[in-house]
Amino acid sequence: MRLLQVVVLVLLAACVPARAENGVVGFAVIAVPNGTAAPIETALWYPAESVTPRATRLDVLSQDLAPGAPVQGRNLPLIVISHGSSSSFTGHVDTAFALAQAGFVVAAPTHTGDNTRDRSGAADLGARTRQFAAVIDYVADHWDPGAVNPDRIGAFGYSAGAFTVLVAAGGTPDRSRVVVHCAEHPSFFECRLIAAATPSITPPVLTRAPRALRALVLAAPALGYTFGPGSLAELTMPVQLWQAEEDAILPAPHYAEPVRAALPRAPEFHRVAGAGHFDFMAPCPEGLARVAPAICENRPGFDRAVFHARFNAEMVRFMTDALRP
Question: Could you tell me if residue 283 is inside a domain?
Fold first, then answer.
């Protein structure tokens, strides 16, 4: 009986990602090959060997990181983050840091053509899904052989990134619904984006992830209305779905609600009272708040930093449970 108890304890310990020793988080920015297209700038946060972290600039943000430090542990779970339209890998730095401290490798690409520096391809959803697939393949197989377990991969997507993740996981959106939706709501964000884009002769090809995604976190999913009955039938993995109560960019009931209804397995659902669309992005430092007030808006009664402490903890808990071996 005692031997059985020891075996059970060993197995349970193996099921949980090892937390980063002393809270040290390693960091790197790599260029992921993308066929004939430009390489994909991708930031990596990961549990690091015990070294002294230092303040590291990430655009206008700063984190205490150990750039280039060796990875602590092998066979670690991987979380890939897809940011919203016109953002970058810095959009969710606090969430990436929290996941890395909890024992996950985190890969966050800056989507080529849909970022803070270049918005020329913001309407090209096919490029987004191809980039997402390329990052998974490269980090799992080539970045640091043995560091990532290719059978323990999850994803977090926000806004356009949530649509990217849904497609990567096997969702099949009905893009004909966009025409109907935009005829009824021409002032909505994506409808204005599409109207301003150069018309495409052929619809972009959407790409699935090269490996099975075992857990998804979706926040404020864009184009949610394109997912009707049966369109998410393959998404049988655990899903955590977040909606901002005061989302003026992707307002109810057109986005989170259709996704929630189409999922074959009821998601863990969180509707955040008082939150706006951009509150799923990292809290803004003072310098960013001055130059991007729309993204950094502080509404009376809502504290983004307080919310993110909960948001990150809930995601760490969900991913830890879902990505057990």
Answer: yes
